[in-house]
Amino acid sequence: MFSNLEQEAKDVCNNICDVVHNASYIINGKDEAIFQIETDLTETLKIKLSSQGFELLQKINNNKSAILQNVPLYESIDAILSENSEIYKKNFEKQLTKQLLGLNNQTENLN
């Protein structure tokens, strides 16, 4: 996501610089002023980009913190699921054993 933001800012910067550079051919005798405007715009966009990038990194770090704080919760959920899995497995084995014993009794009665 950050690289897209960076590329977008670079594209905007290049477009603005192209427009300003083209304008320098139109305005005779103003090359130095145009160059300064180009430089100022480039620097402004770099600052804007770095502040947006910094905000983005802060958001990512904040989310990391939230995720790390919830790790015990995830571990608890995992433990509950594992325990339930074992309980389910034992219940299934009991049910299966009952059914097999029932079938065994029925076959003995048939004999």
Q: What shape does the CA trace take?
A: rod-shaped
Number of helices: 3
What is the rounded Rg? Answer: 35 Å
Amino- and carboxy-terminal Cα gap = 74 Å
- Helix vs. strand class: mainly alpha
Main β-sheet: number of strands, strand sense, barrel status?
none
The structural domain count equals 2
Q: Quote the average pLDDT.
A: 68
Number of strands: 0
Q: SSE order, as H and E?
A: HHH
Q: What is the helical fraction, as a range of percent?
A: over 70%
Uncertain stretches: none
Beta-strand percentage range: under 5%
Protein name: Gsk3b-interacting protein
Organism: Anaeramoeba flamelloides
Domain GSKIP: 6-101
InterPro entries: GSKIP_dom, GSKIP_dom_sf
Key descriptive features of the protein:
3 helices, rod-shaped, mainly alpha, 0% strand, 111 residues, single chain
Would you mind describing this structure in some detail?
The chain is mainly alpha-helical and 111 residues long. The protein folds into 2 domains: 1-69; 72-111. Helices cover 94% and strands 0% of the residues. The protein has helices at residues 2-26, 31-69, 71-110. Helix 1 (2-26) runs antiparallel to helix 2. The longest helix has 40 residues, at 71-110. The model has no long low-confidence stretch (mean pLDDT 68). This is Gsk3b-interacting protein. InterPro entries: GSKIP_dom, GSKIP_dom_sf.
Secondary-structure map with pairings?
Elements: H1 2-26, H2 31-69, H3 71-110
Helix pairs in contact: 1-2
Short note summarizing the structure:
The chain is mainly α.
